[in-house]
Design a protein that fits this description.
This protein is of the alpha/beta class. The protein has one domain: Ribonuclease Z/Hydroxyacylglutathione hydrolase-like (Metallo-beta-lactamase, Chain A, 4-Layer Sandwich). The strands form 2 sheets. It has a 7-stranded mixed beta sheet. A 7-stranded mixed beta sheet has the order 7-8-9-10-11-12-13. It is globular and about 50 Å long.
């Protein structure tokens, strides 16, 4: 590795695999320990397709508790058990994250939660506006508008000397201005092109607010078929599976 801070797009799709894309999953790396951001249900496949060893992922932070953002965790945890993983795994997410992961594991693989593991599995509950250490990163959660049975967050992540901001899933909220302020990279949902879908952000609304974001670079993600089929301005960056962004 070059020593540069990099972000790898493992999954940039929506809940329904629009465009044949994997569900949301990003990997931030370059320091001694990396950080996975969200872990949608298809994420284990995406990791292996991109040559990442899941047993070497030690830290994960979640924006919210919908299956396309956290549903890959049961598979990741079980993969670690079968591969004799020893590296501890720490998952940071909204209040109730441990219970939701446990419930998901028991639905998918009954009895799996209680099986003894060779690695420690720990959870950190994130609180709105409270900085939290997640591995080598400092994460600040911002409340957004996206019901998920627990608080949903946009995240501002300080990793080394770089700041990555991520909207999570949300309709427009003024907190996006705060989370993006001065960020080296802002990953922002653009679920549809212009159709207003409750609790999601469309590209037209985002474009109208873009001058207020004050981030150095903006990349669209979590796109549905409507947006993916639209011809976009060549100056608009759209995430691609397997794309590696150097910060």
């Amino acid at each position: 590795m070059s020593g540069e801070i990099e972000l790898l797009f493992l999954g940039s799709g929506d809940a329904f695999g629009s465009g044949g894309r994997f569900q949301t999953c990003f990997y931030l790396r370059g320091l001694r320990e990396g950080l996975m951001i969200d872990c949608g249900a298809s994420s284990l496949i995406a990791m292996k397709r991109n040559g990442l060893n899941p047993s070497e992922i030690g830290w994960i932070v979640l924006t919210h508790l919908h299956g396309d953002h956290f549903g890959g965790l049961p598979f990741l945890i079980l993969d670690g058990q079968f591969r004799r993983r020893t590296l501890p795994l720490v998952i940071a997410g909204p209040p109730g994250v441990a219970g939701r992961v446990q419930a998901a594991m028991e639905v998918f693989f009954p009895g799996s939660w209680g099986i003894a593991r060779r690695f420690a599995l720990d959870f950190i509950e994130l609180a709105e506006a409270a900085p939290a250490k997640v591995g080598l990163a400092t994460v600040i959660p911002f409340a957004v508008c996206h019901p998920s049975g627990a608080p949903s967050y946009a995240l501002r992540i300080q990793y080394g000397e770089k700041v990555v901001a991520y909207s999570g899933d949300t309709e427009w909220t003024e907190n996006l201005v705060s989370v993006a302020q001065g960020a080296d990279l802002f990953l922002c949902e653009a679920y549809s092109f212009e159709k207003r879908i409750p609790y999601h952000l469309d590209y037209k609304t985002l474009a109208g607010e873009q001058n207020r974001l004050k981030c150095r670079r903006l990349i669209l993600t979590h796109m549905n078929e409507d947006l993916l089929q639209r011809p976009m301005d060549p100056n608009v960056e759209v995430a691609e599976e397997g794309q590696l962004v150097v910060l």
